Amino acid sequence: MAKETKKTEEVRDENRSMGREILELVIYVAFVALFVFLILHFVGQRTVVNGDSMDDTLKDGQSLIMDKISYRFHDPERFDIVIFPGPEEAGLGEKAYFIKRVIGLPGESVQINDGKVYIDGEELKEDTYGITDYIEYAGIAEESITLEEDEYFCLGDNRPVSFDSRYKEVGPVTKGEIVGKVWIRIWPFSKFGPVD
After folding, report:
1. Which residues, including other chains, have CB under 8 Å from residue 166's CB and lie 6 or more apart?
2. Rounded to the nearest 5 degrees, what angle is found at the Cα of 187, between the Cα atoms of 192 and 88?
3. Considering the domain boundaries, does residue 29 fall inside one?
4. Which of 10, 97, 106, 151 is most buried, with most CB under 10 Å away?
5. Residue 170's CATH number
6. How far apart are CA 85 and CA 181, in angstroms?
7. Could you tell me which of 127, 53, 153, 59 has the C-alpha nearest to residue 97?
8. Which of the following is catalytic: 7, 17, 53, 162?
9. Which residues pair with 155 in a beta bridge?
10. Hey, is 94 helix, strand or coil?
11. SS3 for 152?
């Protein structure tokens, strides 16, 4: 009888130990899931390039991680690649987001003249990230535009096909509209790394 009681106690102890381990594992998995959710919801988010407006910097189908928190601490800078919602009139669906490069900053005047971008009357040198295309369509920037205190003028790198701030349907983008900054390319693996 004593042996059976001892075995029964050992089995109970093993069951309690196993139950504790399972509970610890469940708590650990829940913590990791919560951590990943918070990171993806508030800090970063995966997004996929759709279209050719950022060629050759970003290609159609590439996967990116967007930094959603930086602009809470500082303003977007010239040449940052940002993500913002596109206009509903563009016919791209409710959840269409644009990926474009910041060209003009708040308070600056932007003009596209003779195929080139001018900021406050000075030609903008863009060859550092491969832009050499002549801009045929100046759109609303044919005449000088002065940006408001929270507005940014954004262009795609592939100017001939990009639907961007040159078009009145898009226009200058406010800081509040910018969802985040493109941070890292995660697919394809051969191009993995920070995006400039």
Report:
1. 112, 137, 138, 139, 140, 141, 155
2. 120
3. no
4. 151
5. 2.10.109.10
6. 13
7. 53
8. 53
9. 101
10. coil
11. strand
Q: Which domain holds residue 128?
A: 49-188
Q: DSSP string spanning 62-94?
A: -EEEEE-SGGGTS---TT-EEEEEPPGGGSS-T
Choosing from 68, 100, 162, 165, the catalytic residue is 100
* Cα–Cα dist 28/171, whole Å: 47
pLDDT in tens, the chain (196 residues): 555 566 666 666 676 777 778 888 888 888 777 766 666 666 667 788 888 888 888 888 888 888 888 888 999 999 999 999 987 645 555 568 899 999 999 999 999 999 899 999 999 987 666 676 678 899 999 999 999 999 999 999 988 889 999 999 999 999 999 999 998 888 888 888 778 7
Give dist(CA 36, CA 40) in Å, integer.
Answer: 6
Instruction: Assess contact for 166 and 178: CB atoms under 8 A.
Output: no
Q: How many structural domains are present in the chain? A: 1
**Residue pointed to by tokens 């400039």:** 196
Model confidence, pTM: 0.74
Structure tokens at 34: 């919560």
Instruction: Please report how many Cα atoms fall inside a 13 Å half-sphere around the Cα of residue 193, on the Cβ side.
Output: 4
Backbone conformation region of residue 78, classed left if phi is above 0, alpha if psi is from -120 to 50, else beta: beta
On whether residue 136 sits in a domain, the answer given is yes
Could you confirm whether 100 is annotated as catalytic? Answer: yes
CA 45 to chain centre: 7
